[in-house]
Write a structure and sequence with these properties.
This protein has 238 residues and is α/β, with parallel strands linked by helices. The protein is built from 6 helices and 7 strands. It has one domain: NAD(P)-binding Rossmann-like Domain (Rossmann fold, 3-Layer(aba) Sandwich), CATH 3.40.50. The chain has a 7-stranded parallel β-sheet with strand order 3-2-1-4-5-6-7, with helices on both faces.
Amino acid sequence: MSTSQVQKVVVVTGASQGIGADLVAAYRKLGYGVVATSRSIGVADDPEIVTVRGDIADPDTADRVVRAALDRFGRIDSLVNNAGIFVAKPFTDYTAEDFDVVTGINLAGFFHLTQRVMPHLLATGAGHIVSITTALVDQPNSNVPSVLASLTKGGISSATKSLAIEYASRGVRVNAVAPGIIKTPMHPVETHETLAGLHPVGRIGETSDVVDAVVYLESAPFVTGEILHVDGGQNAGH
């Protein structure tokens, strides 16, 4: 990065492992300063990565993340709402605790941080928000009961389009990536073969597939309100 360029800054949630950790690495390759948050994240060796440990469902975490970004970098250009939880149960088996946990992380986490980051994205004149949802929102599968995912991540898909239109004339783009099942620590190796069968292409995705989609959206100034499916064909049908 030349000294004449202003360093851009991204906030990444759910950043300690899997897709989130790879997103942090990808944005660093792009030259961004990164504020990375999760419940278990440790201190980073890279001075251009600031870490904030906290529960994304707690509004205080959002406040601390924004404060850390401004204290270290003085600006926020992008937000990746990657933190999420998936609980697959038959509808009537969900407990009140399941509801509170899933809506807390998936919905409240998205709402509190996005709302607090937005003024800083507007200030840059070219901000970007991208959220990670799930292909099951658009193509439910009887093999994977997922009402709480649809309720919460489906809400984010709708909010993505709503925010994209609300801020289209004000320089902030808002997009989402809807992955299929991705090879992360969430899925034990012994389940991979079964999970692969849920995708028309016959395999599960890699974290790099999702990261590449986010990086594309980051560099696509004419794309907003897009739900980009990275799902091995699930959205097209079964």
